[in-house]
Specification:
By secondary structure, the protein is mainly beta. It has a single domain, classed as Jelly Rolls, CATH 2.60.120. Helices cover about 5% and strands about 40% of the residues. The chain has one helix at about 130-135; strands at about 5, 10-15, 25, 30-40, 45-55, 60-65, 100-110, 110-115, 120-125, 155, 165-175. A hairpin with a 2-residue loop joins strand 7 and strand 8 (about 110-115). The longest helix is centred in the C-terminal third of the chain and has 8 residues, at about 130-135. It is globular.
Length: about 180
Amino acid sequence: MQGWEASGGEIRLNRSAGRGGHIVTAAEFGDFDLSFEWKIAVRGNSGLKYRVCKYGKQTLGLEYQICDEPEDRPISRKSAGALYDLYEPVAERVLKPAGEWNVARIVVRGDRIEHWLNGGLIVAVTVGDEEWRRRIAESKFTDEEKFGENRSGQLMLTDHGSDVAYRNLVFRPLTTAP
């Protein structure tokens, strides 16, 4: 795929090489624990999507937001580590500057989703509860029936037009029972 490069244990989107497109797994996954490191260019934006599936004519999924952001920008549903457009990360999160490696983790087990950043739990949600439904209704996914409630789907590294790199991706399937 043009734009994406794999070398030295890293997967990198190099925008100078042209548009890369998304990398989507062929397989679908249910419950999992995924840890990885990421870094992004200044003012960059990207994401790692999971439980990706078709909603009408669109391919959508829950997204661990990956971005550079100024220190003075308020925490929002579009901040680094957020469950994109649904849940903002905690204000106490530790985010390293653009160009430095951050350590992330996504844990998905049944209706429980956790996002971790640099050793801290920054998002913890229950899919389908009252708060979930309220946030879906207030998001860009409001018209997507049962968005994010599917129990399995593909993984996707997104191309949002920024240089981004990943390394040390470790995927562990989980059983539903804790």
